[in-house]
Design a protein that fits this description.
303 residues; alpha/beta; Lysozyme-like; Muramoyl-pentapeptide Carboxypeptidase, domain 1; 5-stranded mixed beta sheet; 10 helices; 13 strands
Length: 303
């Protein structure tokens, strides 16, 4: 009887060992198994119903040199996902970019901010800080530091990668000044937004549509309240009040810094309005339809 019990125990022990070995072989054969503290996670079954939490890509300049930027952005007050050196450093023939925060984490780069129907843009964005001195006062007015070609090529490569991975809408590739127009000017009027657009990054109006609306608005410009509604519909944080207040001038200046950097005085001139409507026709046609009582929705839509 004792021998039978011993055989039974040996069989049970062997069965248990074989079971553990089989599980181990299963786990070893699955490349998507992660052992964590106290449990194991199998990530081989991926749900189809999901999307990125990232909706926006925000461009900044540092306003000072690289060493100071690194010190500031790795300190306790502010941060950014990426810092672009000046000039772009090379590592084995490719641009070297500092990643300071994982993209899945929330960096503190945009501050009090708003774009479209979202506030606190830090929650939904990736921030790129570009090493650039920004504006400097001279006897002839502000001088804005340029962005070297190799640095912009590195920005383009990084931005293309981010946009592809997170499926960011062109209108949501924005300047810090776009989402915080009363506080910020970066990345300033020398940042080459059109060059980025030609590389598949962000939004830009079509020249023919701008020219068409410039002709239309030279004869009959939209009212200020309609202009404010157009800016709001595109994404800018502006109250539709009908008053040319400080907020409206700030938003117009931010819009001009991005899309008409030749002159960014915050005034509602014909060219600014034409650029805005060309953008709305291209990217926000529903807004154009909503404002059709004053501006013909089809006036330049096929230009």
């Amino acid at each position: 009887m004792a021998g039978v019990c011993a055989d039974t125990r040996r069989r049970r022990w062997l069965t248990g060992v074989l079971g553990v070995l089989a599980l181990g072989m299963q786990l070893a054969g699955c490349a998507q198994v992660e052992r964590r503290d106290g449990y194991v996670v199998d990530t081989s079954h991926v749900a189809a119903a999901h999307n990125s939490r990232v909706y926006h890509l925000v461009m900044h300049y540092t306003g000072h040199h690289e060493a100071r930027a690194l010190h500031t952005l790795t300190g306790p007050q502010v941060s950014s996902h990426y810092l672009m050196p000046l000039p772009a450093r090379q590592f084995r023939g490719a641009p070297l970019i500092y990643q300071l925060v994982e993209e899945k984490r929330r960096a503190w780069h945009a501050g009090v901010s708003e774009w479209g129907d979202r506030r606190n843009i830090n929650d939904t964005s990736i921030g790129i800080e570009i090493t650039n001195a920004g504006p400097r006062g001279t006897l002839f007015g502000l001088y804005w530091a340029r962005y070297p070609d190799d640095q912009i090529e590195a920005v383009i490569a990084l931005a293309q990668d981010i946009i592809a991975r997170h499926d960011i809408d062109p209108v949501n590739v924005v300047a810090h000044s776009d989402v915080a127009p009363s506080r910020k000017l970066d990345p300033g009027p020398r940042f080459p937004w059109r060059r980025l657009y030609e590389a598949g990054i962000g939004a830009w109006p079509d020249d023919d549509t701008v020219a068409c609306y410039a002709a239309v608005f030279s004869a009959a410009p939209p009212s200020l309240i309609t202009l404010q509604a157009g800016l709001r519909g595109y994404g800018y944080p502006i109250a539709v009040s009908g008053e040319l207040d400080a907020q409206t001038e700030d938003v117009l200046r931010a819009f001009q810094l991005h899309f008409r950097p030749r002159r960014y005085d915050g005034q509602a001139d014909v060219e600014t309005m034409a650029v805005l409507w060309a953008l709305l026709v291209k990217y926000r046609p529903g807004v154009v339809q909503a404002l059709a009582d004053e501006v013909d929705a089809y006036a330049c839509s096929a230009s």
